[in-house]
């Protein structure tokens, strides 16, 4: 199990405008392939819409697009449900490894 607290930005670059941080954990959950179970909160503290979005699901490294479930939110995202589509933008394998991911959210209230 690993925990993380990573920056959320408007674009795929770490130099893009900050929106807040993603905080959560992931667990390796397969003996036969590289899959991770993720549970995290996107804590959005900047911009016109502030609040949290709670996301969870399984991520398989081999999938070009990974689909996670939006299970709730607070503030401007109160009661949000939907789909978070995740794509890998970049990975730096230099320890500690750093993944840059891009998320598209389809939210329903």
Automatic annotation (TrEMBL):
Cellular component, GO, one term: apoplast
Cited InterPro entries: Allene_oxi_cyc_Dirigent, Dirigent
Keywords: Apoplast, Secreted
Primary location group: secreted
GO biological process terms held by the UniProt record: phenylpropanoid biosynthetic process
Compartment(s): Secreted, Extracellular space, Apoplast
Superkingdom to which the source organism belongs: Eukaryota
Subunit relationships: Homodimer.
Entry function: Dirigent proteins impart stereoselectivity on the phenoxy radical-coupling reaction, yielding optically active lignans from two molecules of coniferyl alcohol in the biosynthesis of lignans, flavonolignans, and alkaloids and thus plays a central role in plant secondary metabolism.
Family, similarity comment: Belongs to the plant dirigent protein family.
Protein name stated in the entry: Dirigent protein
């Amino acid at each position: 199990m690993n925990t993380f607290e990573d920056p959320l930005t408007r674009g795929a670059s770490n130099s893009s405008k900050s929106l807040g941080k993603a905080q959560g954990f992931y667990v390796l959950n397969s003996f036969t392939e590289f899959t991770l179970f993720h549970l995290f909160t996107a804590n959005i503290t900047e911009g016109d819409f502030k609040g949290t979005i709670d996301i969870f699901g399984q991520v398989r490294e081999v999938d070009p697009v990974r689909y996670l479930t939006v299970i709730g939110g607070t503030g401007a995202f109160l009661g949000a449900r939907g789909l978070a589509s995740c794509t890998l933008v970049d990975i730096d394998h230099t320890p500690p490894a750093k993944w840059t991911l891009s998320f598209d959210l389809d939210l329903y209230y």
